Amino acid sequence: MRIITGKYKGRHFDIPRAFKARPTTDFAKENIFNVMMGYLDFEGAEALDLFAGTGSISLELVSRGCRQVISVEADRDHANFIRRCFEKLNDQTDILIRGDVFKFIKACHRQFDFIFADPPYALEQLPQIPELILSKQLLKKDGVLVFEHGKQYDFSHIPGFVEHRVYGSVNFSIFQ
Q1: What is the pLDDT along the chain (176 residues), one digit of tens a residue?
Q2: Element (H, E) at 30
Q3: How do strand 112-117 and strand 139-149 relate by DSSP bridges?
Q4: Which terminus of the chain has a lower count of CB atoms within 10 Å, N or C?
């Protein structure tokens, strides 16, 4: 796993083979971040990474200048991996929360400039996640939600939907 650009550009982190998480491919990550450049400036932004997995997106967000990133990950081993990655960078920008994403969303009273959600594709509640995030008003005015999902889903009917992007086998729905 590598950081694509920013102050930590080119840094690599080896993901343990036993991990269940599938990090967003570098190809998809690079392309969706290029698209995001037209929506917002990451410099000084506050971001939320839901289902953080390997921390690939959180690391990219911090590298691109986010003032603060909150990473929410339930799996203990994955959370420890994310923690170790930020320790290697000696960077305190990321706040790691090891816990259930749905409980976090329900209890969260903050708003963010950018939210990235990459749930496991087999997650039963996956189709409800964008509406849940948007109904809790976790986005600031002009904030952006990027939701990664499998190709079988169509979220274009949800208020706030802006566009759908496909990079290889990775699908992103973007909301504002």
Answers
A1: 999 999 999 999 998 888 877 678 889 999 999 999 999 999 999 999 999 999 999 999 999 999 999 999 999 999 999 999 999 999 999 999 999 999 999 999 999 999 999 999 889 999 999 999 999 999 999 999 999 999 999 999 999 999 999 998 899 999 99
A2: helix 26-36
A3: parallel
A4: C
Q: Check if the beta carbon of residue 134 is closer than 8 Å to that of residue 165.
A: no
Q: How many CA atoms lie within 13 A of 31 on its CB side?
A: 14
Q: Which of 172, 39, 51, 63 is nearest to 114 (CA)?
A: 39
Q: Which domains does the chain have, with CATH numbers?
A: 26-175 (3.40.50.150)
Structure token digits, residue 41: 């400036």
In the 8-state DSSP scheme, what is residue 14? P
| Rounded Cα gap, residues 41 and 70, in angstroms | 17
Give the E-state strand segments of 17-137 in sequence order: 46-50, 68-73, 94-98, 112-117
Instruction: Report how far residue 114's alpha carbon sits from residue 124's, in angstroms, rounded to the nearest whole number.
Output: 24
pTM of the model: 0.96
Structure tokens at 51: 């289902």
Amino acid at 152: Q
